Amino acid sequence: MTRNTRRLWVPVFGAAGLTCLLLGGWLVRGAGTLEEPLWTTWSDYGGSSDSMQYSALTQINRTNVGDLELAWHYPVPDRTGNFGFNPIVADGIMYVLGPENHIVALEATTGKVIWSHAVEGEGSPGNRGINYWESADRSDRRLIYAARGALWQIDAQTGELVTTFGDNGRVDMRVGQPRVLGGPSGTPGRVFENLFITGSNTGERYFSPPGDIRAYDLVTGRLVWTFHTIPRPGEHGYDTWPPHAWKYAGGANAWGEISIDEKRGVAYVPTGSPTHDLYGGDRIGANLFGNCLLALDARTGKRLWHFQAVHHDLWDYDLTAAPKLLTVRHNGEMVDVVAQPTKFGLLYVFNRETGEPLWPIEERAVPMSDVPGEEAWPTQPFPTKPPPFARQEFTEEDINPYLAPKQKAEVRKRFLAARAGRVFTPQLLDREQIMMPGQFGGANWGGSAADPETGFLYVRTTDHPTIHQLTDYETDEERDRRRGPPEKRGGAVYQRMCAACHGKPRQGGIQMMDRSGLIAISELSAEYLETQIRQGQGQMPAFTEDVISDDDLEALMVFLGRPSDRDEERRRERGRVATDSARKDGMTLYSGPRYTGPFGRAFRADSGLSAIGPPWAEIVAYDLNEGTIKWRAPFGTSPALAARGIENTGNARRAWRNGPAVTAGGLIFLGSWADRTLRAFDKDNGTVLWEYELKANPEGLVSVFEVGGRQYIAFCASGEEDKETPIEEAFEARPGLASAQGYYVFALLQTAETTTE
């Protein structure tokens, strides 16, 4: 059970039955037992297992939000890089990711440390959040988090490892057949009854693991059910892939947010792209269940219905934003719906039980691919309602008017030389392709909040074009390197497998995210680095022997300046059993052409300003009773432009790392990474009612909770280094200070009147 209780409109049984009444917003079960009101706690990632990012608390509202003050700040000065952890609160205790990647329990009213759990030897926990579970009698309370390819549990009251869970507190998610599976996603899974339902982190390369959806017993760690997102022989959807694809294709994983309908016992799971994300010659077909909204029986994993939003994805258009579970008035009747926002700016709305769309969805022709070996799907599904929330096309007239003349000329020249089209335009080999929306555009993880009382959905969207050009997976130069000495061979491996995330080698060396933050690889031992590559950590997937062979790993280590000191036979023995078993039973690997390309290069000018004109980020309010947009409001600013009086531009820089929360007090809370500003918007019209500038960059989802009769709003914020960026140079963003990062918790002034709307 979880501490967030659903609204259940149920009959009153007779004397022989169990009385179950909903009185004054409180759920009454049995002989006077009261449970907490609906959506008034924040004991799960995003507030509740239905992913609503909604709070029914009203103490902070339109009339007094201007009186918000910083109640306390918990600093985390030693973390760098991605840091968007959503705090959860249970029994007056806030659980956060703290210094040195410890899981820390704080007094939710003061920030005072209660206990700290060292994740020593376990790597870095997932940086977006953790989960809370308790037994029916509340005697057993646990926290579930991900680290080093495994699920871990600690006691929520003491911080001690729960050694009865799995193998001494740990369940390895990578164990699978016929090959190694992906470890936990950086986004927390979901608690349902005594099950933990989770997706995985598979990576985006050729031969990545498949993205199986799995459910584990929360008490024992036993695997209860698995849903194969790359279907196996005899399973529905198998014929949408090449015959042997289930043995070599990867991805189609749920790395975003899962939503649970507890009343129906249904898990709504959005899935991502099959790999490779930008080329699918080795996976000809529609590729179920990639890019799907899946409705699964939460107790068994049985597929109830599905909808594929992208057929044969070539654009990295993962479904990552949480499906939102609302009840709306449609054709004169109240209908339970699930609404799925997307990276590409389209919003799909379905009957939650049957999977039928509320408004017709049309398969429309889209451009085909001319890349050798590729067979793009000829159509894609477009909803007739609601209208898109992000721009679907980038034209010459859309070029940013605020660019300096020289920059504008350079952007126009590059634009005219590229292939620029509407959404679902495939990449090319001979020239660049401009993707609009880009894969960091539209709605990403944490990207929407919903109001169950009104049927409104609020989408945080970005207009963020990206630019691509496919290249041979292995160029002639790389083939020469592969035949050359280890350092050159390792350089080819790095370019192919690592450079997209870690960048080109530069002064100061290559960096990676260690449990203490960004660290130079030259400071890590060879054994530790090998383990990180093989097992994965945080957002980096495990690179198994099918992806990087032992010989290639040895060469890569030489290139990185950390040659392995392990015995050769021991190295070659690692994973040999898994690899051999994968090649039995007549496994046939795809042997045709493969292409790759950089993931998500933003199309920007040298100043950092987007190539496309504003608004670059907005909040879009949908009335799903009507399927219409009620209002749009810019989200964030360009600091340098704002200093020149150019406001209301929005800002797409890392906007996809910020998630809103909507409240019954009439407010939407959201932080903006680029201008380091927290804001409260009027949920009826988008007017900004409160602003607060930090020295750090807000990241992650907002938390809203109440302790001791006082309501609080919590934000996480990150930093890079203690060096201020001059405002005239901060077109794109003002990086936060490392000394200012941590958690910022706000409440009304103690002397302020706390009226309730």
Features:
single chain; 757 residues; mainly beta; Methanol Dehydrogenase, Chain A; Cytochrome Bc1 Complex, Chain D, domain 2; 2 domains; five-stranded mixed beta sheet; 10 helices; 48 strands; 11% helix; 30% strand; globular; disordered N terminus
Task: Report what the structure shows.
This protein is mainly beta. It folds into two domains: 39-469 and 602-748, Methanol Dehydrogenase, Chain A, CATH 2.140.10.10; 474-592, Cytochrome c-like domain (Cytochrome Bc1 Complex, Chain D, domain 2, Orthogonal Bundle). Helices cover 11% and strands 30% of the residues. It contains ten helices and 48 strands. The strands form 14 sheets. The chain has a five-stranded mixed beta sheet, with no helix packed on it. It has a five-stranded mixed beta sheet with strand order 5-48-47-46-41, with no helix packed on it. Helix 3 crosses helix 4 and helix 4 (486-497) packs across helix 7 (550-559). The longest helix is centred in the middle third of the chain and has 13 residues, at 405-417.
Task: Give the arrangement of secondary structure elements.
Layout: E1 20-23, E2 26-29, E3 33-35, E4 54-55, E5 68-75, E6 88-90, E7 93-97, E8 103-107, E9 113-117, E10 131-134, E11 141-147, E12 150-155, E13 170-172, E14 190-192, E15 195-198, E16 213-217, E17 223-227, H1 245-248, E18 250-251, E19 259-261, E20 266-270, E21 274-275, E22 292-297, E23 303-308, E24 324-330, E25 333-341, E26 347-351, E27 361-365, E28 379-383, H2 405-417, E29 419-420, E30 433-435, E31 448-451, E32 456-462, E33 466-468, E34 471-472, H3 476-483, H4 486-497, H5 499-502, E35 511-514, E36 517-520, H6 526-535, H7 550-559, H8 568-573, H9 576-583, E37 595-596, E38 601-602, E39 617-623, E40 628-634, H10 639-643, E41 658-659, E42 661-663, E43 667-672, E44 677-682, E45 688-693, E46 697-707, E47 710-718, E48 742-748
Parallel strand pairs: 4-42, 29-30, 41-46
Antiparallel strand pairs: 1-2, 2-3, 5-48, 6-7, 7-8, 8-9, 10-11, 11-12, 12-13, 14-15, 15-16, 16-17, 18-21, 19-20, 20-22, 22-23, 24-25, 25-26, 27-28, 30-33, 31-32, 32-39, 33-38, 34-37, 35-36, 39-40, 42-43, 43-44, 44-45, 46-47, 47-48
Helix pairs in contact: 3-4, 4-7
